[in-house]
Amino acid sequence: MNAEQDTSQPSSLPKGLQVDLTDQVALVTGASQGLGQAIAVALGAAGAKVACVARNAEKLAQTVSQISELGGEAVAKPCDVTDRESVDRVVDEVHDAWGRLDILVNNAGVTRDTLLPRMSDEEWDTVINTNLRGAFLFSRAASRLMMRQRYGRIINISSVSGIIGNPGQTNYSASKAGMIGLTRSLSRELAGRKVTINAVAPGFIESDMTRALGDVVLTEVKKRVPAKRLGTPSDVAACVLFLASPAASYITGQVLVVDGGLTG
């Protein structure tokens, strides 16, 4: 259930959803691969200028290249999302270059799976710091700009693991549940400034990680999902596009679950 760990290339852009983000500026964390890459490419294809954030500059260049090939504008911003000074610098650089920041997608995430009795302090801290502290730091920096311009969209990529829990993932589930709490609290703080904050909670998404489970396990997973299939990065990217659009102006503090009915 770790959707943002997808390391495959986006198979296609979301189809059937017409969103115009021309002249808007977006920042996507964890944009070097998988789900974050799919989201960044979708935002760029919709007309937004996209700042792509992750640690790996080489992989970020691939995301920027995909957006450019679609006629969009993007820039790579290597950054450690757990470091406050780096986060503030990136947000300031994006604002200085493009004059505003309209959309923030907090997607960066890691896992360090093991049962709690065996979990080390480092395994706990690494996951909480990347997944939750990173979202806090970028939300704080971005919200200051969005409040001044009286417009903004913050979208946090949580997980169904943050709703129902998952054995061996107490650190991951706690971080994703924390993102939901962050979403709901911050939405109440910023709604009056026309800044919306929502979360998307993916379930089992097609990825290198899910493929590594093997055909037998995947067959059982699909049986558990009422939709009888895994989700795709495009399924999640489409939800992000909608929440990032002006059409979602009266939706805030919500968690949009994208799991084919797994959690009911």
Describe this structure in words.
The protein has 264 residues and is an alpha/beta fold. It has nine helices and seven strands, in the order E-H-E-H-E-H-E-H-E-H-H-E-H-H-H-E. The protein has a seven-stranded parallel sheet, with helices on both faces. The radius of gyration is 17 Å and the shape is globular. The model is unreliable at 3-11 (pLDDT under 50).
Write down the Rg: 17 Å
Classify the helix fraction into a percent range. Answer: 40-55%
| Structural class determined from secondary elements | alpha/beta
Low-confidence stretches: 3-11
Strand content: 5-15%
Please list the strands of the largest sheet in the order they lie side by side: 3-2-1-4-5-6-7
SSE order: EHEHEHEHEHHEHHHE
Mean pLDDT: 93
Distance between the termini: 15 Å
What form results from the Cα inertia axes? Answer: globular
**Count of beta strands:** 7
Main beta sheet, described?
A: 7 strands, parallel
Count of DSSP-assigned helices: 9
Task: List the defining traits of the structure above.
264 residues; alpha/beta; 7-stranded parallel beta sheet; 7 strands; globular
Give the topology, please.
Layout: E1 25-29, H1 34-45, E2 49-54, H2 57-69, E3 73-78, H3 84-98, E4 103-106, H4 121-149, E5 152-157, H5 161-164, H6 170-190, E6 195-202, H7 208-211, H8 215-224, H9 233-244, E7 255-258
Parallel strand pairs: 1-2, 1-4, 2-3, 4-5, 5-6, 6-7
Helix pairs in contact: 1-2, 1-9, 3-4, 4-6
